[in-house]
């Protein structure tokens, strides 16, 4: 027999018509129209889910027993260039996502940052702010007015979109979060209050809440006036501790982790052994509010995956493309075994039955009569035959970062004619984050900011913060070799105090001659290669230097019916994949991710174009089709 729930449920009180969401007078919990209400939330990120799948993922959360959806808004996804906002194209229509939640009888916890972390590039903060050499992020107006002016503009853009969607105005939004895990970064009450006031000036007076680890919250007092408290890695015991420290406002488990994030080069996908059964059972038994971070992670398509810096070693740790997170709902939207287990636990405490689990999205056939179905790409184009015009020389005396050139993502090519008639070595230790180096079209080596164990290094000469030896000149004709450094910017650091993470060459390039002379190289030619959709769709199919790495390969996927699919690129080295112009994200043979997810809406019946850019391979390898991440 199911236990009678003492809290209101979405099935009995839905987000339709005005409602009053408030805090109990003694801080014991949350109230909906004056009645105790348990928030059972699952986190979804609209930016990581194709718009066509939004409703399916919301329904998956509902069928697991959730009555609320928590969502981050990634600021840099909506203001990609300074002052220009996009809340309309593709999966950027946040208002439409929230209305879908309401249509599915789900409440909303709104988490707009401006900083969100989320294993997302720069934690959601726009990279164009890094064009200021001395910029300070996540700080008050007195410390850096440039940052706070941008934050104010962002919130002013959001406020009129959000206000009609508040519960008090007939929408589903219960609370708005102020910043994110600020106690892990600093102690600055003025900064948090300034953000709160931006919302108030926009006509939104709350309810507000903050999200922090319990220890960080206690140390840095990073809550806001009158705001509820959400706890990272929260559980029943931590909620009790927070209530003792902050007795006047309610606390909830704001991020309960069902899995974990994964970096490139780790041995396996992380978080797969997590079991929340006991935690969930206690939260339900005690009618405590919680948010599963994440109930479904989705995919960091394109260039948006973030990075960490290891606190002990200082090692740069870029995140993989998949944000599967070992979550209850997998990357492609499938209910996992733990999903069914957690659903059963939650259902025991509810007075009404849960809706049926939605059917999974169909996958296309990944086998044929010969077994594994494969694509065999062909060499298509060379990056070297598709270079845009170099920047004016006034901008290129010294190599600068992407941000100083106004570029957010992709690659930048730095070129320099050398006067060299002897052996030498090149010091390009300040590369963010991965570079291939060429001397007169010959691959000379590479630099990876991420140090990898020897057994998992690329099967090529990869140098980590060490000189790249240049071939000595043997004749007068070799006196001016061309040096080319093609730099890939990977994810910007999204957590901690290393977030000022500019991309490209961020320090001097030094030539060490065999004679002992040291020369800082200047007067560069710089070519911007954002690798955006316009660029790849306008590639000229030329390949005049097939033996020079930096090639595009193309294949055709012919299908009768669309469906989800994974492209297995385990035989490739490092690069990107586009399908019909959609950027599926990065791959890298250091793993653990070897397959890239392609959602069905990005395919069409008939012929589909698969484009691969690989930084190292000169010959194509097969690409197998798969139906799962691993």
From TrEMBL:
Lineage, top-rank taxon, reads Bacteria
**Beta-galactosidase galactose-binding domain span:** 551-608
Q: Which Gene3D superfamilies match?
A: Galactose-binding domain-like, Glycosidases
Per the Swiss-Prot or TrEMBL record, the active site comprises: 181 (proton donor), 255 (nucleophile)
One GO term of the biological process aspect: carbohydrate metabolic process
Q: Which residues form the signal peptide?
A: none
Domain Beta-galactosidase 1-like first all-beta residues, every copy: 399-527
Q: Name one GO molecular function term.
A: beta-galactosidase activity
Q: Which reaction does it catalyse?
A: Hydrolysis of terminal non-reducing beta-D-galactose residues in beta-D-galactosides
A Pfam family: BetaGal_gal-bd
Assigned EC number: 3.2.1.23
Domain Glycoside hydrolase 35 catalytic intervals? 30-348
What keywords appear on the UniProt entry?
Glycosidase, Hydrolase, Plasmid
Q: Which family does it belong to?
A: Belongs to the glycosyl hydrolase 35 family.
Q: What is this protein called?
A: Beta-galactosidase
Organism encoding this protein: Paraburkholderia largidicola
Lineage per the UniProt record: Bacteria, Pseudomonadati, Pseudomonadota, Betaproteobacteria, Burkholderiales
